[in-house]
Structure formats: C-alpha cells, structure tokens
Design goal:
four-stranded antiparallel sheet; alpha+beta; 4 strands; Nuclear Transport Factor 2, Chain: A; 37% helix; 140 residues
Length: 140
C-alpha cells in the first residue's frame, strides 16, 4: 500500500511540474514564438488575432475598424515567406517577408513585400509588432 501511495504521489508531482510555465525563455526564443504565432494568424486569415500582437500604443493611435477587417476577408493568403532580418541599433528586430495574396472575388494572385518591425517590451516580457498589419493592397 505505501508503495502504491508513493507512486501516485510521484505521478502527481510530475503532472504538476509538466504544467509549470517556462520562466527562463530567452528574448530570442520569445521572438521566434511570437513571430510564428503572428505568421500563422496571417496565413490562416486570422487578422483579428494578428492584430492582438501589434503594439498596444499603435492599436490605440490607429485603431482598425470593422470595414478595415472586412477588407482582409476579401483576400486569402497563399504564402508567407521569411526573407531574412536584421537588428537595428535600438534593438528593434526587422524581418522582411513575402506574402502571396489571392483576391477572393477575382481569384488572381499577387505577391506583396512587407517589413515587420518588432520591439521587446521589458515590463510585459513580450515582443510587439511596430509596423501594424500588412498593407495587402499597396495603396489601392
């Protein structure tokens, strides 16, 4: 009986440890994670989800309307390619991407280049997108 109790206690401890959050994630791996989440949201057409990763200051200064989000529903993303990145002197991470955009009405595809700019928010321990959502219409 004591052996069974010990095993149950050990299994409970292991289950609790597995659920503990990572507290020592590096800024680089945190950036990888947030960029992956952002690119996945864009690829799947979840622009509202991608919007939550935009810097809160920018969201407040330039909020998107329902009409803005409805424009994004008119397109489908076919590709999202990382074209490389750099680090600016102030620590902002820059990543160039190429996005394949299909117009849902005409079924025509075109390619848009987009530059993401990410800043690390030390108090929040997260990265925020400074460049906003991509302009998939390039001024159209």
């Amino acid at each position: 009986m004591p052996r069974l109790l010990l095993r149950c206690l050990l299994l409970c401890c292991l289950a609790l440890l597995a659920g503990c959050p990572k507290t020592h994630a590096s800024k680089g791996s945190a950036l990888d994670e947030v960029q992956y989440a952002y690119s996945a949201a864009i690829r799947w057409g979840d622009f509202e989800g991608a919007w939550t990763l935009v810097d809160p200051k920018l969201r407040k200064e330039k909020p998107l309307t329902d009409i803005d989000f409805s424009r994004y529903k008119q397109v489908q993303i076919s590709t999202y390619r990382d074209m490389g990145g750099t680090v600016e002197p102030d620590g902002v991470m820059v990543r160039d991407v190429e996005i394949g955009v299909i117009n849902r009405n005409t079924l025509t595809e075109r390619t848009v280049r987009y530059r993401e700019r990410w800043r690390y928010d030390e108090p929040a321990k997260t990265w925020w997108l400074l460049s906003g959502l991509p302009d998939l219409w390039q001024g159209d």
